[in-house]
Structures are given as structure tokens and as C-alpha cells.
Amino acid sequence: LQFTVVVPAAGVGKRMAADRPKQYLTIDGKTVLEHTLDKLISHPNIQHIVVAVHPQDPYFDGLPCRQQPWLTRVDGGDERADSVLAGLNMLAQQQQPDWVLVHDAARPCVSHSEISQLLALAEHQGQGGLLACPVRDTMKRANKDQPSLIDKTVDRDGLWHALTPQFFPFSALRTALSNALQAKIAITDEASAMEWAGHPVQLVESSDKNIKITRPDDLALAAFYLSLENL
Ligand code: C5P
């Protein structure tokens, strides 16, 4: 089976405080976005990628892979969820796929075997899910009025970090995301919208190398993880 990926890449990367969005910073001479796209398209079950970029993005059209037939550009939106929905709406006009993957542009270190495990959900469970890893540290809930004071310790048993890719039946995800946005629900990943709409969502355990590049040190860490793949 062949699948399509929507890659939200329309963020401005404020926490990176760099001269350009983090997806256009380079690791070994190649942008983070290209590392991510290469990782995805080289997977044997991925055939097409829709990338949501900022409408005034000056970098995307200059990428060497820009003219590849497997790549489609769409204008992203104000929030990540708007960007993902823009990608899904574009796909609704073109392909109407049964299932869709969504993967952050800023996660180049995901592995092919993790993607394969996630894709197996379609066949074996018939329901969607996401890559996730269990939290390791003790978790604290801060006081709302005094954010530097602890209110309580949250039981970390059963707590997971939600990563990407996330993988869902296409129409159900498009409907859930669009309804959740209209209802002004805080949506920071696709699973949030699916949970809100009452769909079951599977956790698929991922390695914690699948980091989201967010702060300056993450670039060096991602470079290290990517270099391990070539050993
Ligand atoms: O900002 P954050 O790290 O959560 O962004 C996750 C992904 O969502 C990034 O790849 C970013 O480019 C993308 N994004 C987007 N549209 C936005 C905000 C973020 O496509 N409006």
C-alpha cells in the first residue's frame, strides 16, 4: 500500500531565535525540511508529500527537490492545525486517500521502522494512532496563580509524549480537525482532534531520538542522531 504525508512546515520557529524558520536551518549542508522529506519519501510505502508552507515563504521554491513530482506545496495557516487542514483540503480535491500521515517538518530523525510500525495499524487495528514515547521524568503541575510553585505531582505512569507521524483515516481526520477548529478547541496535534471527536487513538511506542527541533542545541543533537543512521 502507498500513503501520502501532509507535512506542516509553515511555522516561524520563534523559540529557535534564528534568522530563518528552523525547518530551513541546515544539518550537514542540507535543510532540516529536506532531511525530513528525504526520510519520508525514501520509505517504501510513501508516495506523495504535501508540504504546508507560509504563503510568503521565500525558501521553499529554491529547494533542490522542489520540482519533484511527489511534492505539492500548499499555503499553511496561522496555527499548525490550520496548516494541516490546508494540506488535507488540497488532498480532498486531488486524491481522496483512505488514510493519511501527518509529520512535523522539524522531525528529521524518525526512523523507517517506526513509520512502518505506525502504518501497520491500518491493516491490523483498522484505527489510527501516533508515535509516542513514555515520559521519564517526574511530572509536576504548577500552580495557576503562582507558576513557580508546584500544585501537585502528576502520576507519570501512563503519561506519554505525543510525537509524529500521526496516522488516521483521511475523512475522519479532516472532519474532526475542521470541526475542532470551528469549535475553537485547542488542537496541538491530530490525535487531539480525533480524541475530541470520539475516535479511538492507538499509541505506538517510538524511540526518543525522534526529537522535534525546537531550540538551538537540538540541531547538533539531530545531526548526531542522523549520523548514527549512516554507520
Ligand atoms: O511550533 P511547533 O514546533 O509546534 O511546530 C510544529 C510543526 O508545525 C513545524 O514543522 C512547524 O513548521 C509547523 N507549523 C505550521 N504552521 C503553523 C505553525 C507551525 O505548519 N502555523
UniProtKB/TrEMBL annotation:
Q: What is this protein called?
A: 2-C-methyl-D-erythritol 4-phosphate cytidylyltransferase
User: To which pathway does this protein belong?
Assistant: Isoprenoid biosynthesis; isopentenyl diphosphate biosynthesis via DXP pathway; isopentenyl diphosphate from 1-deoxy-D-xylulose 5-phosphate: step 2/6
> What is the native source organism of this protein?
Aliiglaciecola litoralis
UniProt-annotated site: Transition state stabilizer, residues = 15, 22
Q: Which Pfam families match?
A: IspD (PF01128)
| Reaction equation(s) it catalyzes | 2-C-methyl-D-erythritol 4-phosphate + CTP + H(+) = 4-CDP-2-C-methyl-D-erythritol + diphosphate
Q: What family does the entry list?
A: Belongs to the IspD/TarI cytidylyltransferase family. IspD subfamily.
For whether the record's keyword set contains Nucleotidyltransferase, the answer is: yes
- Lineage of producing organism: Bacteria, Pseudomonadati, Pseudomonadota, Gammaproteobacteria, Alteromonadales
Q: What does this protein do?
A: Catalyzes the formation of 4-diphosphocytidyl-2-C-methyl-D-erythritol from CTP and 2-C-methyl-D-erythritol 4-phosphate (MEP).
Q: Which Gene3D superfamilies match?
A: Spore Coat Polysaccharide Biosynthesis Protein SpsA, Chain A
- Superkingdom of this protein's organism: Bacteria
Please indicate which residues carry the site annotation Positions MEP for the nucleophilic attack: 156, 212
Keywords from UniProt, A to Z, are: Isoprene biosynthesis, Nucleotidyltransferase, Transferase
Q: What is its EC number?
A: 2.7.7.60
Q: What class of enzyme is it?
A: transferase
Select a single GO molecular function from the record's annotations and give it: nucleotidyltransferase activity
- Answer whether the UniProt record assigns the keyword Transferase to this protein: yes
